[in-house]
Amino acid sequence: MISIIIPAHKEKSNLIQLVTYLGDMDNSGSYEIIIAQSPDCCEDIAKIANGTSVRLVKCEKKGRACQMNEGAEHAKGEIVAFLHADVRPPKDFLSNIESALATGFDAGFFSYKFDKDNFWLGINAFFTAKDGLFTGGGDQCLFIRKSVFSKLGGFDAKQVLMEDFEFFKRMKKNKIPYTIIKNDLVVSARKYESNSYLRVNLSNLLLVMLFKLGYPSQKLRFLHDKLLRTPYNG
Questions:
Q1: Predicted confidence (pLDDT) per residue in 35-63, tens digit
Q2: Quick check: is 203 in a domain?
């Protein structure tokens, strides 16, 4: 079974759309959907979890790393996949995951494209199919064997920003075999629309470089919030 874990905070509208979308996917295997809700989120999303394959976990601790860890603790599947609420996977992404792990990989990511047709965004999307500086970002939907995820200790709860890159760093250090599946997810371009292409790219580059230089995560969060406006779809 594959457990799809969705960290949620102020994303009610996107969650409704995503859960409906996942229910219409072409899949031959079993799966479950776990919505890991932030403890400080006051939205009523309980009604979303009204199907047999959807479970709502009201998390005890704040932060996306904590939400995803708590979601994984409740997961029944041997494989966990971490999906953002504003990302739409390809219809066959479950079978893609199963095929990748059946061929000897323990983890992986997906390439992606944006939901807006834009030349500059297309350049960004092109590089998600390559293994490089920005590999491991949350929008790429990390999937991993649950046993391997647990062995690595899950996401670092103290990493309040870029928890995905920090986990990927430990994956590489421990030589976990991974792949990038070239079957595009569709990622929302709302951050670019709320800021600008140049502002988002320069901010992301700065944040990644500071992270790699060991800049404290709390300061990274403060800097991120100063540089970028974060839109929600509540």
A1: 998 877 656 666 665 555 688 888 888 88
A2: no
At 56, give phi and psi (nearest 5°). Answer: -105, 125
CA distance 5 to 138: 12
Residue ranges of the chain whose pLDDT lies below 70: 26-29, 41-53, 232-234
Secondary structure (3-state) at 20 = helix
Cα distance between residue 164 and residue 176, in whole Å: 15
Cβ(190)–Cβ(11) below 8 Å:
no
Residue 168 has a pLDDT of: 96
Between helices 119-126 and 197-212, what is the axis angle to 10°? 20
Furthest-apart CA pair in the chain: how many Å?
Answer: 45
DSSP state of 144: E
**Confidence at residue 157, expressed as pLDDT on a 0 to 100 scale:** 93
In a domain, residue 202? The reply is no
Distance CA 208, CA 213 (A): 9
CATH number, domain at 75?
3.90.550.10
| Enclosing domain of residue 67 | 2-188
The one-letter amino acid code at 167 reads: F
Is residue 162 in some structural domain?
yes
- Could you tell me if residue 198 is inside a domain? no
The number of distinct structural domains making up the chain is 1
- In this predicted model, what pLDDT tens digit does every residue of 3-21 receive, in sequence order? 999 998 878 888 888 988 8
